[in-house]
Amino acid sequence: MTWEPQPDGLNQIVTLLKQSQSTDNSIQRAVQMKLEELNQYPDFNNYLIYVLTKLTSQDEPTRSLSGLILKNNIRSHGTHLQPAIIEYIKQECLMALGDPSPLIRATTGILITTIANKGGLQNWPELLPTLCDMLDSQDYSVCEGAFGALQKICEDSADTLDSSALNRPLNIMIPKFLQFFRHSSPKIRSNAIACINQFIINRTQALMVHIDTFIENLFHLSSDDDREVRKNVCRGLVMLLEVRMDRLMPHMNSIIEYMLIRTQDSDETSLEACEFWLTLAEQAICKEVLTPHLASLVPVLVRGMKYCDIDIIILKGDVEEDEMIPDREEDIKPRFHKSRTHTQKSAGGGGDGAARSMEGNDADEVIDDPYDDMDDDSNLTDWNLRKCSAAALDVLANVFKDDFLPILLPILKETLFHQEWVIKESGILALGAIAEGCMNGMVPHLPELIPYLVSCLSDKKALVRSITCWTLSRYAHWVVSQPHDQYLKPLMEELLKRILDANKRVQEAACSAFATLEEEACTELVPYLGFILKTLVFAFGKYQHKNLLILYDAIGTLADSVGHHLNKPEYINMLMPPLIQKWNMLKDEDKDLFPLLECLSSVATALQSGFLPYCEPVYRRCISLIQQTLNQHLASTTSPGEFEQPDKDFMIVALDLLSGLAEGLDGHIESLVVSSNIMQLLYQCMQDSMPEVRQSSFALLGDLTKACFQHVHPHIADFLPILGHNLNPEFISVCNNATWAIGEISIKLMEDTKPYIPMVLTQLIEIINNTNTPKTLLENTAITIGRLGLVCPVEVAPSLQQFVRQWCSSLRNIRDNEEKDSAFRGMCQMITVNPVGVVADFIFFCDAAASWMNPKKDLHEMLQKILHGFKMQVGEENWSRFVEQFPPQLSERLAVMYNI
């Protein structure tokens, strides 16, 4: 197809492109409107490709911009463009890949990738063969342009390229790329490695057949003069370590020595190389291959942890006092609400019934990367050498444990007490990084180190004060286990001063560290509550926007940690007015409500009846937030063009706060429930398409069942089938809360649960027998089955044999509580109805009975009766043989507890 532009049209578009480079916002807005208007004309896109590829009289930035506008048009309207126009654009792109200008070649490459992504590679069958042919061109620009485009395609479409839909082009492409590893141009060598690197992680077959050639060529390029080439070599080796360790093993010594040198490079190669240590730490052979190199590696990692001059400038490391400077909105990272999950506490930990666990992608537990927030600044939140070195030191300390210390301690001595603050700061960071792995070996040194660190909390450098907060939080567990006067009190006093520091970064680090200390110390903090609250409340008036959100978190964690000890008039009078003042200031659509609602939820649960004076306005607003979200959802579903989808987090957080109120206020919530439409709202939320909404609504249903069942009762016939429908372990937390709510409802419904048993029992038995079911869900499932057996033993007992072994194993580890009590009573009832069902697994029942510390008197009698009944049934001789299989501790425990 040939197409020629009209001169007027061309001039108009060039003028627009020039204007759009203006810094004046009003001109930019006008240009934007004009471009939208021009999109109505089909051949507008022909003009754009013409300017990019043919209009050599114009400057490069203008031509490139034309290509980028075209890229956006294809991304937005590609499917509506006439086939002839798309064909013209494709043909021009391929011709322009050899443009003398690197900028135009790169822009064309981006455009080609966008078309390929939008229309699918299979709809542009000549693209890959043409690009591969262009690699052989004698014209350097053509070869380099084609490689640039191929690299982007490999990045974006690695999976498609390996599919049979395209007839497996990689079988040709990979051997072709390998030929260019020895090309004279560093740019092309670098492209060739980058293309192949895209196929390592998925173990793409077309690469695996050439793996030895690839590795050999990588080694050949390892000492290349070009930085980009070396960076790609490091990246390739790090990925190979994960997927083809077998092929690297014979060369491991040289690879480690190579990576040691590269980790010390003064450019980005050092970060790519440093990733190697993180990956190596995850391999089983790590200890064996790294031991001889440890003494060289550790100092390199500690040096990598030092701030460089650029970091200090970006972090405003020389600005000591900035508390008066308002935060920029773009510096505030989005917060994700952690929905409530009902969990059991094991026989060793602290805390009580409903706990919040962090649900990332519905995994059972997600651990925050401590190195991600270490230097929390918008410009440095990117992964960098300092964070990577610290993370590597951490994982290696976990591999080598205390064997790490003979090498590390001398380095720590030298850095921790150094005159230069940047070196001292990196030493404090290193000390924090090894805390988890080397804790045992560090214990003898902590009586000297902790007071030193506490003194560093008042260092004149803000960056030293902030990292010290973080490092101390990593040793909080040890501090709490020592006599309070010696370490905990001085640490707490200094940390509270840092919460009121004049530097925002220090405030933030101190608040986070204090939250960790709260979690470790729990009720040990009760004697200091007045002092703690005074500080936290003072910070309310002092903090800028970003740290205020972290302060809510510290207050919520405090409430979770000390519980009802917070319920004293003087504490309530300090804490509630500033919280309610913020609550009244925030608008319903302000996302700052999330952390505040989370905080209030913890506070309400802790204060219990102490929250009564504040509960009505809080309750009403939660109901209103849920109602508004549901209304907006309905509007956006019925007329999608007119109304946007709501942010359902508002509804989730409101449901969770209502749960906190129901749990804290217990029966006192009744008067609020009766005068609201909460049951209708709950019915809608329980059927929401978003798992987190269902998760939180089931938690609330369970809490309302406990607090005021008379209002839940009339709706049971609607609610229970929905709960049964959500017993799907694919969504762990949803399933977990639905299971727990069924158990709570059955306890209240008693024998009226009978008609609902068929719709839940089969799934519960499936869940308890599934080997992938996480611990929390197993425990809740066992409790609910036990409760169903308590209220309807005749209906549940016939299935006893299908779940008794798993049931006993799941509940032996949780501590004595009401839920465990009701579940065991249910088990005793079921065994009475169907004694044969437990015979094959009786040893598990004995073990579970022995897991009680002190059961209530009547439950103790039930358990004893079953044990003695079984002994009589089998006779003395068989019983003796049976008991011989017991571990000695179990025999002793049963003898002491049940006299058997």
Automatic annotation (TrEMBL):
Sequence segments annotated as region (Disordered): 329-371
UniProt cross-references to SUPFAM superfamilies, sorted A to Z: ARM repeat
Keywords (A to Z) from UniProt: Cytoplasm, Nucleus, Protein transport, Repeat, Transport
Highest taxon of the lineage: Eukaryota
Importin N-terminal domain ranges (all copies): 31-99
Compositionally biased intervals (Acidic residues): 361-371
Record's subcellular location: Cytoplasm; Nucleus
GO molecular-function term, one example from the UniProt record: small GTPase binding
Pfam families for this protein: HEAT_EZ, IBN_N, TPR_IMB1, TPR_IPO5
GO CC, alphabetical: cytoplasm
Chief location category: cytoplasm
One annotated GO biological process: protein import into nucleus
Protein name per the record: Importin N-terminal domain-containing protein
Species per Swiss-Prot/TrEMBL record: Anopheles atroparvus
